[in-house]
Design a protein that fits this description.
alpha+beta, 4 helices, globular
Length: 142
């Protein structure tokens, strides 16, 4: 399992990633970074005020999406069948559409327990959303 580099610049990198996602993702209304190993929302930016309890739940919901018990079981079955010995996870990106919004969750390449979250208006061009978010995530390589 990858470990986070706790260099003095890590916090600055996370805040820069959040800011870039918020600015570069089309129709973006919020962005954030979740550390699934600690269960913490490391940083976020949003155009609206949200109740603190909703923000507190974001990290847990992200963990459930990527590493919930059933998801891990599915990954383990596929790893066993394919003879994969890696600790890397299969689920790298998850797109969720709610009634009014589109939520994109992207696992960081270097640190599999860090997930970038982008929330956009539902009218977003999903192809452009993926392209922009992937570009920003590649730039930050957390």
């Amino acid at each position: 399992m990858a470990t986070k580099r706790m260099t003095p610049g890590f916090s600055d990198q996370v805040m820069g990633l959040v800011k870039s996602l918020r600015t570069d993702a089309p129709d973006c209304v919020a962005s954030g970074v979740v550390d699934m190993s600690t269960g913490m929302l490391l940083s976020y930016e949003t155009v609206d005020n949200h109740p603190p309890e909703v923000l507190d739940l974001l990290a847990g919901a992200t963990l459930d999406l990527f590493q919930g018990r059933t998801v891990v079981m599915i990954e383990d079955v596929f790893k066993e069948r394919r003879g994969v010995q890696s600790d890397n996870h299969f689920f790298q990106e998850i797109l969720v559409n709610s009634e009014n919004l589109t939520h994109l969750f992207v696992r960081m390449t270097e640190q599999q327990d860090v997930v970038a979250v982008v929330v956009c208006r539902k009218s977003v061009n999903v192809g452009m959303l993926f392209a922009q978010v992937r570009r920003v995530v590649r730039e930050y390589r957390l």
